[in-house]
Design goal:
single chain; about 200 residues; alpha+beta; three-stranded antiparallel β-sheet; 1 helix; 8 strands; rod-shaped
Length: about 200
Amino acid sequence: MVPGAPLERPQPARHARDTVDAEYETVPTGGSRSRDRDTAPAAKPTDVGVAGLDMLRPGAGVSRSGGGRGGPLFWLFGAVLVAGAFWIAGGHSLVHDLAILPASAPAQALRLVDVQSRVERHGGKSLLFVDGAALNEGDRTVSVPGLSIDVLARDGSTTRYFLGTNDQQLDPGTRFPFSSRLVAPSEGVKSVSVTFRPS
């Protein structure tokens, strides 16, 4: 300050308002402005999709969520529930019966070889001897199922016998020999067939 200098009126800053980052006032419907900004009700965002300063635009707070269809996760969850109910209600047995899932059948790797039959008389009775072997042609160890021996008599009647194997474990490339002695039919034997019993 210099003595005798004319007093100059301070000029207002021309760009003083440019430094304000953001300022707003809540105006009630009556038209009078609220002087107390601290007591003004805070705006509540009603739409989670509004981001940044877009919430200040007119109508941005209106909820845009309509009665649209469910998304892919909703339908996927519903499909899983339906499939689970079908499976529990008996669908697993249907799938098993249709043989969609491969079943481990030892008979696919096993084969009957050297099957022979003969009739001999011992003590006034005719006995039927059936000999043969089960061969494991697979590449893994399997259990030998029981055997079914069908004897066809000359009169057309069939007698079936079962021979147990105690689920003998058979290594790849090995044989399981068997021999059975049966009472021959009095009408005579026409044919003999040996098969694996179904499990």
